[in-house]
Design goal:
- By secondary structure, this protein is of the alpha/beta class.
- The protein folds into two domains: about 15-185 and about 350-400, Rossmann fold (3-Layer(aba) Sandwich), CATH 3.40.50; about 190-345, NAD(P)-binding Rossmann-like Domain (Rossmann fold, 3-Layer(aba) Sandwich).
- The protein is about 45% helix and about 15% strand.
- It contains 17 helices and 15 strands.
- It has helices at about 20-30, 35-45, 60-70, 90-95, 110-120, 135-140, 160-170, 185-205, 225-235, 245-255, 260-265, 285, 310-315, 345, 355-375, 385-400, 410-415; strands at about 50-55, 75-80, 100-105, 125-130, 150-155, 175-180, 215-220, 240, 260, 270-275, 295-300, 315-320, 325-330, 335-340, 380.
- An eight-stranded mixed β-sheet has the order 9-8-7-10-11-14-13-12, sandwiched between helices. Strands 3-2-1-4-5-6-15 form a seven-stranded parallel β-sheet, with helices on both faces.
- Strand 12 and strand 13 form a beta hairpin.
- Helix 1 (about 20-30) crosses helix 3 (about 60-70), helix 2 (about 35-45) runs parallel beside helix 15 (about 355-375) and helix 2 (about 35-45) crosses helix 16.
- The longest helix is centred in the middle third of the chain and has 24 residues, at about 185-205.
């Protein structure tokens, strides 16, 4: 293949991987019919004509389908990865072969990671698409010169939305951002169903262990934790949940799980997975209590949930599999860490299934269109309910599922109050 469209600006691992990446994107598109229906409309209407979009997302085959959709809508796109380990190098090369500016490869250093984010910002985007809020953070701290040219942004994940709401509360947010994560067709699908399956997939690829019979400790019981717990339970694990939120803990109890403090769970757990979005939820004091052979994994966005620095300074490290490292503590017990404490579903596996990401990226596409059509104030927004409903309908259509409709009598009854018992 002749790579005539390769951009001199892009930086990826190996452009020769493009052919393989194009096959992967084609496979993803087979399962992303809802997003393709939006692409079809975008191709005709060009609602994003002339827009410059800067993205920091996991560079996967599914993200490539989103990029193609935005380009079909008339936008020019530049993209960097949002995690040093999550880029699929063949997909990055494939996007470059199609004329997209890409600054991403697997196993970036932290310095390279931020260099690549800044390369995206050098294109002076009008719209930012973030997964973790790092682009927004850079613009507000070190690239303030770009603020006047930005119409708005979108945020993909819970961690990023939490950071954005903190910025909004501090009156630090200077342009509007749509919390795509908060749409029902995102966090109740992507977080719950997608994270549940892909996190287990990542742990299995990293370790090849048997899940059945293990004490499986889920740290955090939000939508992601609920999904992980359900799938671990379905594979025969004895699920233990730890929480700081009383209602979420109550939900876990009512869902049939054992709930206890992490200090108690540490001594009996076989597998631990963090899904909280917070820092050092598994600390040195917990790891000192763990039995030899305990496996740790993180499914949160950043690599802070497990105190990896404590492990690095308190144990002898040895890599025993591509995504698994052994840490021998001073007491001779061994702890195993998946994917250096980075999000295991993308670092050790391939992230969420394409069907799930179709819904997430339908929301992203429609959020960018919403930004381009509306002048918004600098705050955090949630997509209107009718857009969330449209995503659900398009997904059902792509699955060949039909649903009932209310009769006129039923609509009148639901809208009224006069008719009683």
């Amino acid at each position: 293949m002749f790579y005539a469209k390769f951009s001199d600006m892009s930086k990826v691992k190996d452009v020769k991987l493009a052919d393989e990446g194009l096959k992967q994107i084609e496979w993803a598109e087979m399962q992303m019919g809802g997003l393709l229906s939006i692409r079809s409309r975008f191709s005709k209407e060009k609602p994003l004509k002339g827009a410059k979009i800067g993205m920091a997302l996991h560079v996967t085959k599914e993200t490539a389908v989103l990029v193609r959709t935005l380009v079909a809508g008339g936008a020019s796109v530049s993209i960097a990865g949002c995690n040093p380990l999550s880029t699929q190098d063949d997909v990055a090369a494939a996007l470059v072969s199609e004329g997209v500016e890409v600054f991403a490869w697997r196993n970036q250093t932290v310095e390279e990671y931020y260099e690549n984010l800044n390369k995206v910002l050098d294109t002076k985007p009008q719209v930012t698409i973030d997964d973790g809020c790092d682009l927004v953070n850079l613009i507000h701290t070190k690239r303030k010169d770009l603020l006047n040219g930005i119409a708005g942004g979108t945020e993909e994940t819970t961690t990023g939305v939490n950071r954005l709401r903190a910025m909004e509360n501090d009156k630090a947010l200077k342009y509007p951002v749509i919390a795509v994560n908060d749409s029902n067709t995102k966090h109740l699908m992507d977080n719950y169903i997608g994270t549940g399956q892909s996190s287990i997939d990542g742990i299995l690829r990293a370790t090849s262990i048997l899940i059945a019979g293990k004490n499986f400790v889920v740290v955090g019981y939000g939508p992601c934790g609920k999904g992980v717990a359900l799938r671990a339970k379905g594979m025969g694990a004895n699920v233990i949940v730890t929480e700081v939120d009383a209602f979420k803990a109550l939900q876990a109890v009512m869902d049939g799980y054992r709930v206890m403090k992490l200090t108690d769970a540490a001594a009996i757990g076989d597998v631990f997975i963090t899904v909280t979005g917070d820092k050092h939820v598994i600390s040195g004091k917990h790891m000192e209590k763990m039995k030899s052979g305990a496996i740790l994994a993180n499914a949160g966005h950043f690599d802070l949930e497990i105190d990896v620095k404590w492990l690095e300074t308190s144990a002898k490290k040895k890599r025993i599999r591509p995504d698994l490292e052994e840490y021998q503590l001073n007491n001779n017990r061994k702890i195993y860490l998946c994917s250096m404490g980075r999000l295991v579903n993308l670092a050790a596996a391939e992230g969420h299934p394409s069907d799930i990401m179709s819904m997430s990226f339908m929301n992203q596409s429609l959020a960018v269109e919403y930004i381009m059509k509306n002048k918004l104030e600098p705050k955090v927004y949630v997509l209107p309910a009718n857009i969330d409903d449209l995503v659900a309908k398009l997904q059902l259509q792509s699955m060949g599922v039909t649903i009932d409709e209310l009769t006129e009598e039923q609509k009148k009854y639901m809208a009224g109050w006069e008719e009683g018992t």
